[in-house]
Structure formats: C-alpha cells, structure tokens
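A further point concerns the way the authors explain their paired sequence and structure data. Showing the layout once, in full, would remove most of the difficulty. For illustration, here is how one protein appears when written out as sequence plus structure tokens:
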Amino acid sequence: MSSPTRTVLVTGSAKRLGREIALALAHAGWQVAVHYRDSVEDARRTSRECAEISGNSSTFRANLGNETAVRNLVPKVVAHFGHLDAVVNSASTFEHDDVSSFGFAAMEKHMRSNAGAAILLAQALHSHVQERRGGGDAAARGAVVNLLDQKLWNQNPDFFSYTLSKAALEAATTMLALALAPTLRVVGVAPGLTLTSTLLTDAQFQERHKMALLERSSTPEDVAATVRFALDNRSITGTTLLVDGGQHLMRFERDFSLM
C-alpha cells in the first residue's frame, strides 16, 4: 500500500511569502492547508493554484491571536485531509514600536500571534502524530518550520515587540525540538530582507536588498526552497538556517525600513 500524500499547514499563506512557500510545497507534492485570517479571496486563489499543482488543497481561517482559534486549527485540517505531517509557521504580526512606545498591549499582540500560536500548533501536531503512531502507523513523524528573522543575529532597537516575539520563537524552536523528539523535528528558517513593503519605495528596496555580503539578500524562492529542504531533511532539528545573503554578519543600526 502506498503512503498517503503528505499534508502541510502553512500559516499566513494567502499572500506574500507564505503564498510562495505554499506553492513551492505544492510543486514538491504536498497537499497544502492554506491558513488565512482576513484575506479570503487571496487564500482561495492560493489554494486553487496549489490544488491545480498537487491535486488537493483547502483554506482554513483562524485568528492566531485567539488561543481557542489556534487550538481548533489542526483538528480542522486533520478532519479535512485525514492527517497532517507538517506545519510551517509563516504568519507574522509586524507592527512598529520602539523602547519609548513599548507597552504590554503591543508585546502581547506580537507574542500571541508570532510565538504562542506557533508553539500551540507544534503541540497539536505532536499530539496528532502520536495518535497516528499509537494507531498502528509506527513510522509516522512530523516536522515544524518556524519563520524567524536575521534581525535576531543583527539586532537593532526598531520593531521592539516584533523582535522580542521572534526571539521567543527562536528559543522555543530549540525547546520544542528537545521536548517533542523523536516524533517531531523543529527547525527555524531566518530570511533577510525578502519582500518590499509600504515603508519602502521600489528603489529603496532594491538598494537595501543588495546590502549583503553576497550583494543580494533572500528572495521568496530562496526561502521557500529552504523550507522545503528543512521539511525533507530528517537529520535537522533544533537549529536555524539563515537565508539572507550574509546580512546577519553585517551591522545595521536601524531596521531596513527605517534607514
């Protein structure tokens, strides 16, 4: 009997980097559960394109700042596909604050969606895979990939709460790898400047993208390929792969968007 097609949940995959990761994994043969919060039409488009590539995809809505919604997400994916093999935590809250504007509300908002949700999803995937193993699928294993940020290795005080939440997620990557082995592997992927935003003009983005040892930072394709590698390589856990053209080895006094 052939093994079932692997299924992956990619959070925040309606658009931008999460979408690129979802499409890359569909090309690699994964069934993709496309998570979104508000971008309904974008999520449907991503899911439709993934289904055209790999044969099966569906959308799942959840506010990652809401604990009940996060706890219900993996069971919904499992109910639809029958099983889940991996989670890619790509969704991220990214709002500006600094040490002068920092407050508990901003910190909690970032911590909930960027760190807490990823931990709960890893916990839920672990429970699901353990159930499969107890049900006779002794070979069942799972993997979690957490999207981090080269800022953690090249810190500046901008986006204070966001950076704190990603630092917490980086620490959780190690702790989860220890706690959930051998059933789950947990790997971090840390991009550099990858996509532009409303804070940058196209010219500014192109200029700052080249500010790396390799004279180019990461592209969406680079990051998606690294996520795929992390999911496929069964010897990697508890570490982070930096995909940034060497930006983490340089010194930036400000965030790219505020230079």
